[in-house]
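Researcher: Structure prediction, please.
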Amino acid sequence: ALVKTNNNILSLDLLTPEQLDEFISKHQPIDLAFILAEGYKDIPHTFYSGYGAAMVRQQLNKYHIPCALSGIESMEICRNKDLTYIKLKEKNIPIPGYFVFDTHLRFNRIKLLSQIEKIEFPLMIKPAGGGDSIGITPKSVVHNLQELKNRFIGLKKELGPEKLIIEKYLPGREYTVGVLGSKAKKYILPIIGFPKDYGIRYTSTKKKEYKMREKFEIIYRDDKKFKKLAQIAINTFDAVEASDAIRIDFKEDESGNPYIIDVNGTPALSLSGSLTFMASKVGLTHSQLIKLIFYESIVRYNLAPTYLLEEIISKIQAKLATYYADKDDKDTEMALI
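Model: Predicted structure follows.
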């Protein structure tokens, strides 16, 4: 997709910081990095520590190379769920009741019970850092202290001494919302509503989701549910200071009230990814989605798009214009698709 914009595109399968240093030295000057990497492949810890995506951007920043998608601070917020929740709470954006537990510490029943009393069982246990549903399985939902301890021990063995988010488990329906654009103007793609009996979404089920999409509900802009989730998504995009593209996961409580359970600053941009699927519902191909994100990042850094890219984007924007909606909030310039 990027090659077809008449830009000189270089690719790298990112393994180590040293490899990236060598690559940059060999190919400078580099105008922009379109990063899909969430860490360094030869350093697995960078994928689930919560800091891999930011570390890659920090390394590029040393060479004054701007990056597509969100910046260093935003990536740190999105990849660390404790920081995500702090930011969202500051802006009165709905999140489940939660507390943070550090697995460096001993499993102290008395202290835990005092925290649990505030939000009550059942609870959802997940690593604070990383993404791609690492550390989440059907066993992540616990109903008593013994199940909590078992999950605590399991995660410590799997990931080492990392922080955990212990939050109120929400039994309702799950949704995922794609947001494209900038602070000034955003596009909210048609929303995916997962089946009510779908259960816990984790790594292995997400990899198979593209085969089950006929069971998903697509929620368009004329639906009241769309408008409610879209406004929360817009506020979230701004709260975490995102750029270009993010994906936000919501879950409802037993009364149907939506809460944000994850903000993904590095949404999958593969052919089978959720963002690609949502974009297809407004007539965008995978290639057009990539080009639009690329264009947004170029414009944000005041770089000059090629004539061909400008031509391509004008056609994409014409296609999207049909789906613009009136602004709900006069203080927020936005386009709801």
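Model: The CA atoms of residues 5 and 54 lie 27 Å apart.
Researcher: Thanks, that helps.
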